[in-house]
Design a protein that fits this description.
about 180 residues, mainly alpha, Potassium Channel Kv1.1, Chain A, three-stranded mixed β-sheet, elongated
Length: about 180
């Protein structure tokens, strides 16, 4: 009689998104999620009964976000889990190439990914997606300022060609000047 030991990665769990779409996720990949890992351990899945059990429902995460989550988990399966508390983001987070490519999505989707990573207890993905969101927000803030500076430079160039000179005065100085003049009235 031969006893066949299953490799730890041989078990695949079925996870169901809010809209009913199912995903198969390897045991090693699920270990990246503290929440899912504890859940499957508590449910006592075995290689023999994993296919017979119902899919694990995740009611508040859509299929598009879960797909990204599980792609990330499968790519990073077997990697050590960070020791810091969830919600904490280290100061210097490097976004590896795979993660950067995975998060080449709009800001709303990055926020969904960040929220789902937090909910599922995926520390490293939370840190990376938080960093990505921060970078995107900084770029968003910088873009209008750069556009305004470019428009102002273009206007100054046009004025210079016409022999005009424009002086920009801040609203603060204008207000201060008006208050100063009011003393003499």
């Amino acid at each position: 009689m031969s006893f066949r030991a299953a490799a730890p990665d041989a078990i695949y769990y079925r996870v169901e998104a809010r809209n009913g779409e199912e995903f198969k996720v390897s045991r090693l990949a699920i270990q990246q999620s503290e929440v899912l890992h504890r859940l499957v351990e508590a449910m006592g899945y075995t290689l023999d009964d994993v296919e017979m059990k119902e899919a694990i429902p995740i009611e508040n995460i859509d299929a598009e976000t879960l797909k990204l989550i599980f792609q990330w988990c499968e790519h990073h399966k077997g990697e050590p889990i960070p020791e810091y508390d969830l919600g904490f983001v280290p100061e210097n987070v490097v976004i590896p190439g795979f993660d950067a490519k995975l998060m080449d999505i709009d800001l709303e989707k990055v926020f969904n990914l960040m929220d789902a990573a937090n909910y599922l207890g995926i520390k490293q993905l939370f840190a990376v997606s938080s960093t990505k969101a921060n970078i995107m927000l900084q770029e968003e803030e910088r873009a209008p300022q750069e556009d305004a500076a470019q428009e102002e430079a273009a206007q100054e160039d046009a004025d210079a060609e016409n022999g005009e000179q424009r002086i920009s005065v801040s609203a603060y100085l204008v207000d201060k000047f008006h208050r100063f003049l009011s003393f003499f009235q």
